[in-house]
Design a protein that fits this description.
five-stranded mixed β-sheet; 3 domains; Nucleotidyltransferase, domain 5; binds adenosine-5'-triphosphate; binds magnesium ion; Actin, Chain A, domain 4
Length: 338
């Protein structure tokens, strides 16, 4: 018996951001995946934005924890605390929830996701594969007998999948996402200028002047950090070409995932891609030049979905609203646990 599926809350528990889809409201919550703990009192001080703002700046009595790493739960209790807090205003009774899980994770990791939502107070939990949710959220006709290719790149994981008739027929996943691009920029500035910058600064540089493919424009950003030789604060001019070079290695890993997925397709589905192309979803889809790079390497069109960072949450919301018709895309194992 399915309880309250019409009002199932949609949950996308990402490495950097938690999104909740609430029926009638759409994506109602977008909060950083961070929990701040008061170590002395042993209590949760804040979650989401408030907790994120103190990352790297808190006194030793407060610890900010990021409970999801590479798309999987790394700190179970903190993940439960975060979900409990964020779900509280939207829960109707014990209710039901649909939560996305990345492809290529272990059964233990999947079980942790389900149990975390249950421990946060939700009675009935359904799982959906993240690339399926992303494809539905990007409005691809996933139930049709044709290749639907989605390249989903979040903060901690890249998932490439081809779907036909509601099922994934080829997929590849790499534990690499936007945070790794930030790290590549941090490493490059260290090597090139002896300049140490934090992750937030690197992310800003990436969004402002980062690109995956030459755009023909030369942008420059003034970057502040700490000189590693003398320990003093310093400002350095960084060019878009330098940032593109810094991102080259992670780009190769993303392209390898795409190519390896393509190599496993039947000739008919492969041929479809020349016509239909692929769609990019996830926050990292917004990286300038990424669709051009993938299109240039694969030879078929690649487009960025509308609001790519919200595609998974929107896809879950769509499934929740069409529960009977789309039930088959949800994990069938829910009744084996509890
Ligand atoms: N304009 C932009 N250019 C490049 N990257 C961007 C841009 N906007 C957001 N991002 C990146 O998108 C990433 C977050 O994407 P998203 O919210 O899809 O990830 P997530 O769901 O938290 O992680 P995951 O699904 O991998 O567990 C961050 O690394 C962020 O820096
Ligand atoms: Mg995500």
């Amino acid at each position: 018996m399915i309880v309250g599926q019409k009002h199932a809350i949609g949950i996308d528990l990402g490495t950097t951001c938690v999104r909740l889809f609430v029926s009638g409201k759409g994506v109602a919550v977008r909060e950083p995946t961070v929990v701040a703990l008061d170590v002395r009192a042993g209590t949760v001080k804040s979650v989401g934005r408030d907790a994120r703002d103190i990352l790297g700046k808190a006194p030793s009595s407060i610890v900010a924890v990021q409970p999801v790493k590479g798309g999987v739960i790394a700190d179970y209790d903190m993940a439960v605390a975060l979900l409990r807090e964020l779900l509280a205003p939207y829960r109707r009774g014990n209710g039901a929830a649909i939560i996305s899980v990345p492809t290529g994770i272990t059964d233990v990791e999947r079980r942790a996701v389900r149990e975390a939502v249950q421990d946060a107070g939700v009675a009935k939990v359904y799982l959906i594969a993240e690339p399926i949710a992303a494809a539905i959220g990007a409005k691809l006709p996933v139930n049709r007998p044709r290749a639907n290719m989605v390249i989903h790149i979040g903060g901690g994981r890249t998932q490439v999948a081809v779907l036909t008739m509601g099922a994934v027929v080829a997929s590849e996943t790499v534990r690499l996402g936007g945070l790794d691009l930030d790290e590549a920029i941090v490493d490059d500035l260290k090597a090139r200028y002896n300049l140490l910058v934090g992750g937030k600064t690197a992310e800003e540089i990436k969004k402002q002047i980062g690109s995956a493919y030459p755009t023909g424009m030369m942008d420059i950003s003034q970057v502040q950090g700490r000189n590693l030789a003398n320990g003093l604060p310093e400002t350095v001019s960084v060019t878009s070409k330098e940032v593109m070079d810094a991102l080259a290695t992670p780009m190769v890993q993303i392209l390898d995932a795409v190519k390896s997925t393509l190599s496993r397709l039947s000739p008919d589905l492969s041929g479809d891609l020349l016509q239909y192309g692929a769609v990019l979803t996830g926050g990292t889809a917004l990286l300038s030049g990424l669709s051009e790079l993938i299109s240039q390497v694969t030879g078929f069109p690649v487009r960025v979905a509308l609001s790519p960072e919200d595609c998974v949450a929107n896809g879950i919301g769509f499934v929740s609203g069409h529960f009977r018709a789309l039930r088959q895309v949800l994990s069938q194992e829910e009744d084996r646990i509890r």
